[in-house]
Amino acid sequence: MRTIAHEKYEAVIGLEVHAQLLTKSKAFAPVTIEYGGAPNTQVTPLCLGHPGTLPVINENLVRYIIKMGLATGCSVARKSIFARKNYFYPDLPKGYQISQYDTPICYDGAINIELEEYDKTIGLTRIHMEEDAGKSIHDQDPYNTLVDLNRAGTPLIEIVSEPDIRTPQEAYAYLSKIKQIVQYLEICDGNMEEGSLRCDANVSVRPRGREKFGTRTELKNMNSFRNVERAIHYEIYRQIDLIEDGGEVVQQTRLWDTSKMETRSMRSKEEAHDYRYFPEPDLPPIIVTDEMLEEIKEELPELADVRQKRFVEEYEMSEVDAVTLTDSKYLADYYEEVTEYLGNPKAASNIVLSEVLRVLNEQSIDIREFTIGADRLSELVKLKEDDKINSSALQKIFNKMLDGDKSAEEYAKEMNLIQVSDSGFLEPIVDEIISNNPDEVQRYKDGKKQLIGFFIGQAMKASKGKANPKLVKDLITEKLDN
Amino acid sequence: MSVTEKDVRYVANLARLKLPENEVKSLANDMNKILEYMELLNEVDTSNVAPLEHVIELDSRLRTDKAEKPLDHDDALKNAPDADSDYFRVPKVIE
């Protein structure tokens, strides 16, 4: 991927991110939303668009979006209204989507992103509330389209950025930050592969130094952070090459094709939708009172930036370690659980940053999918802290625990790794090593003290790894030095 | 402001209405007459009047985020013109 900025052109990128909220019920109907439920089992007459039904707003739709607004420095509109966005599609039974148009509930915010070489602030134009459509299935039946309306009416927030983004890397960093914020706020699980975060990108290019934007295209169908980065990168160079060849960029929607790694035209402006927005007559205005705003402010959790600083101060760790541990709320929670159990922040960060992160990276999983819970991991580290096992045993038991659900102590016993700290058992071993290696003993006595490592190694081997290395060392020095 | 025949076809298409070609002209006329009548409203200065979004002055009541029993699956599909045992069935849509 060419990551160096183009010398002649600069890209202008704006992102629209949809986040599916983790409410217990739909935006306007009291029915659950569970991923993977049997088709058309999580619906009410309202979700099906039956006549005579009326929407009632879910309180948490309003509260969650205000949380997001406050966490991103937005102003919160004290009065905002819903609007109807009209279009016909089989998975939209009412013929319109309830959304917000000219009065978004949150507006004028900003998100700070950190890149390797610089930090940057990306402006947020607005965050508004809307409902999701159902799901159309085109490939199961050769003659028909099948419609599942379980998802219809799921609460979404749409986060619209200013056209402040200049590179695919900035777009990636911006998305990562949004994911981090929604996870810290616990309003969305932030999983782009499963569709709980979705992203469309508006991309244009202009010669460096020119203020006027070029003609933009809208990119859709990017279902991972990497694909957003790739699609934007592809599109920037497609537009530059087009202009360089004397062509013109056409305003259109383009789909990212993961298998071909390219964007292709979906519809042009002439066929663009005309949504005919108008105020939703079924829903009165949303009024946000001082009281409600104060209450939500009180509920705001500690966000990543603050938690990171606290980790540095409270647990005396480096900033680099704090950034790594607080990147995901769930990892930070896990770390704090282990720390609390052990009463030893250093021991906790050692194992989480080394062993746990290694496994997460190898398996490309989230800490929530990690098989060793914080309590089991803590018990394992505790065995080491209490000198019941040594570090190589810890490693072996850790690997065993990944695939089994027994406790660390059970594995330690089963694998015969409980450290022997009994000098009655260790002394004969040490004596034997000393009598079997007269040359080394002589060299040691002549001043080559580094040989202590050789003797310890031999003793560990003879004890099949069970000896307490500290005790072995004491025994050997005692015998050789006197 | 004048409604052209092209506008009439455009609006009909947006509303997914099938419009006989011989009605387009008279509909354009009708629509122009309606809009001309509405022009009367321009006699009032509304530059300092906020748009009226709702006729009744009410604030939204918020619902507690709680799920209730969904509609029975068979009942959900019962009124559909076409369905299989799981899904609503509609003519093939290709975007």
Describe the structure.
The complex is a heterodimer of chains A (482) and B (95). Chain A has 482 residues and is α+β, with helices and mostly antiparallel strands. Chain A has three domains: 2-292, no CATH class; 302-414, no CATH class; 423-480, Arc Repressor Mutant, subunit A (Orthogonal Bundle). In chain A, 40% of the residues lie in helices and 20% in strands. Chain A has a nine-stranded mixed beta sheet. The longest helix of chain A is centred in the middle third of the chain and has 20 residues, at 225-244. Chain B has 95 residues and is mainly alpha-helical. Chain B is built from three helices and two strands; from the N terminus they run ααβαβ. Chain B has helices at 5-14, 24-38, 73-78; strands at residues 62-63, 88-91. In chain B, helix 1 crosses helix 2 (24-38). Chain A binds chain B through residues 23-25, 30-32, 38-45, 48, 50, 56-60, 62, 81, 86, 88-90, 136-138, 141, 143-149, 266, 274, 276, 279, 281, 283-287, and chain B through 14, 16, 53-54, 56, 58-68, 70-71, 73, 76-77, 79, 82, 84, 86-95.
